[in-house]
Amino acid sequence: MDAKYWAQAGDAVFTPDNLQQTAGRLMQYDFLATHIKQDETLKAITEAAKTELFNQARLEEEQDADHQA
Hints:
Layout: H1 3-13, H2 16-23, H3 30-37, H4 39-68
């Protein structure tokens, strides 16, 4: 995965509004709403997604290389 692409897409996708919208009805619970609204929560979710996407991209590249060898 291209780092430049990630920077653009990540900034557009991982926003407080999108996170709260995705949480949906869970936002009605004060303790979850408080947690979801914290900057640290958004940062942790963003970092976890980035790590997973980069790991998946690396795995796919390795599999492609194995098939071409």
